[in-house]
Amino acid sequence: MKNALLIDDETEICELLCAMLKRNGTTCMFAHTLDEGRAALKRGTFDAVFLDVNLPDGLGYDLIPDIKASSPEARCIAISAMDSEGGRAVQAGDVCPQPRSLS
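^ thats the sequence. predicted structure below, dont judge the formating
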C-alpha cells in the first residue's frame, strides 16, 4: 500500500493511523467530512481508504460508490467506535468482515 486516504472527523484518529501507516512507507491524506473526502478522491487515487462510519455531514458508507469510481482497486476499511457496525459495513461494499493484511 502506497497511498491512503483517512476520512475521520477526529484529527487524533487520523494522525494515529497515519503514523502507523507511514512506518510501512504509506503516504496519507486526511479528510474530516464527506465533502472533504469527495474532494480528496478527485485529487488522487488511493490504495486504501479508512472511512469513519459517522461523519458530521453524513454516513461514511455513502462515500463507498465515489471511492470505487475514482479508485476501483482501493480497499475500503470502515472504522467505527460501535461494534454493531460490522454487518452493515460488509453490506455497504468492499469491506472485509474479518481483519486481514493490506499488503
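The chain has a mean pLDDT of 84.
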